Sequence to fold (395 residues):
Amino acid sequence: MGQQRTDVCIIGCGPAGLILSQLLKLAGIDSIILERQSRTYVQGRIRAGVLEEGAAQTMIDIGMGERLKKHRMLHDGVVISLDGQRHRIDLKKHSGGRQISVYGQHDSVRDMIAFRLAAGDPIIFEAADVVLNEVKGDTPTATYQKDGETHQVTCRYIAGCDGFHGVSRKTIPDDEITEYHRAFPFAWLGIMAEVAPSSDELIYARHSRGFALHSMRSQTLSRLYLQVPLDTNVDDWSDEQIWDELDIRLGADENWQLNRGKIIQKDLAPLRSFVVEPMQYGNLFLAGDAAHIVPPTGAKGMNLAIADVRALASGLDKKINHNDPSGLEEYSAICLRRIWNAQRFSWWMTSMLHQHTDQDEYQQRIQFSDLEHLLSSDSYKNVFAENYTGLPFEV
Fold:
């Protein structure tokens, strides 16, 4: 059996695991990343692309954001479309000067993997059948299979950054954690298209036919979404049908046209919310999607993961370098305050902007009134912009 030793074994090579590894390195703490998928697969996963100001600055500050800084699209606002009538919310004005960065998560992951490997820091791809042992003891271990051999990593702490379906959370006994779930009765049909964005800013559209979102990943790639029933078969939607429906919901007219191009990817994403409490079991700490899922409407997924690992890295630094356990003891509480606020914000945006087939006319009127209030009230816009651009990190 191959033996390895490190301070922190990180399970998962997504944004949470990669950023945590660099934060630990800057604190003089060794880590190894175990990833069950191949490098090609990890770098090709299409995910969100909106970064809060603090999340983007974190990547830049730790040295992993050079391409982000060069190629990102900085946005000062977003557009809300109400049955084809567009209204702009000035994020910079209503948040005290903050902006968002648009940069594909798969680009960020590719950049960070290259950065870590160039520095000679270990990432073990295609680490199969990971099993976590003795996570409540002083020397937990992670065993995995690679190239027909069994390997074991002995460490002081394990960081579970391996997503909702990963092994980390499943290692915790059911009676030691509480899970909170909410499933929404619709999904998003998403497309990636090789076409320049039709708008300089994101467009969130509430329409009587359903929600739509115009987003982008670069100056030549557009990412767009349609609200559809949960049982939708993506193959039943032709490219022309998708563009026609986006035209209607986004309000294309003589003053604004939706650019059409080659669709290179289609996918279906059910909307759901999930939170686990606490985010720690012994010396195993959960971060990112292993601990929480939010509907993508509020653009909080990757941003929450970065906030998690900032708190975890700080706690590990205090404990390993200064023998101060307070940061690790408070880890769950610090993270969960931000997580539940993001859950509330994401639920609010999702509820306000989507069509709900189970609503009666009274509920629809309340929903419409809420949206009109957002578009007419500066104080409501302040709340929206502060949350959308990202609340300050808790120290």
